[in-house]
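Usage

Read records sequentially. Each one opens with the input sequence:
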Amino acid sequence: MIEPISDVLPQTPASQHKTPLQKGDLLLDINNQPVNASHNLYQPLEGTVGQKILLTIQRKNQTLELLLTPTSLPQIEKTLYREWVKNNRKLVEKQTQNQVGYIHLPAMGWRNAEEFEQQLYTIGKDKKALILDVRYNTGGWVADYLLAMLMVKRHAYTIGRGGQKGYPQGRLPLYAWTKPVVLLCNEYSFSNAEIFTHAFQTLKRGPVVGQPTFGGVISTSNIQLLDGSYFRVPSRGWYVITNNKNMENSPAIPDFPIQNPPGQELQGRDNQLLYAIQKALEQIKQKRP
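and closes with the structure output:
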């Protein structure tokens, strides 16, 4: 039996065609090769990235032919990631009546730090709290730059001609977020994302929700050989300042351990994010005079 198409990703050839694929369409064949239980669905797609292929679909009582140009798996993964972040942000804003912003950090490189600063301004605008998500973060080196934006202590406030209290952000080296933050981490938060999570707890910036991080924290550098190859050499270890704990093989433990069972994840339920929303709303209530 042919299963109907369950979803169509936006910003892909299937959704941008003049006759886009729709949820519920039946895929009959690919390049005149039938699609059914006895045929490998992926075989006629092998090696077709950038080449046109012919899809035959059934839509209600119509049989349609679509000429599409497949995109690569890495590009699809980027699209899936953007959709995941967008849906998480929509959920947070809906559940909190637009009081809480959501930012996901996929890595800890310089571009990530720049994007984070931009999003603090754009996504954080008019928000009362922030959920910062470092789940699946592959690491890098900019933890201290992020902390510099999150750990600013106010020494004064200003009142402009309009009568509103504030502070001139242009006087600061980086954009500053002084409102409540809830941090999300999991077992795929790695290296510099773990240093950041440990620091977030050590500096008592806010609650941490999720699962213990990976436990792989050490600084390494590249040594290049004459033939152009290189190898990596450990150069320093990292230790929690309050208890001298070596972060290598010592994951950051969330204040509120929450699991995401695989079955519920497949259904689109994110228990960790839902709990972080709850903690963010609590932080807003506690901050009120």
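Summary fields computed downstream for this record:
- The chain has two domains: 13-71, 74-287.
- Residues 186 and 211 are 4 Å apart (CA to CA).
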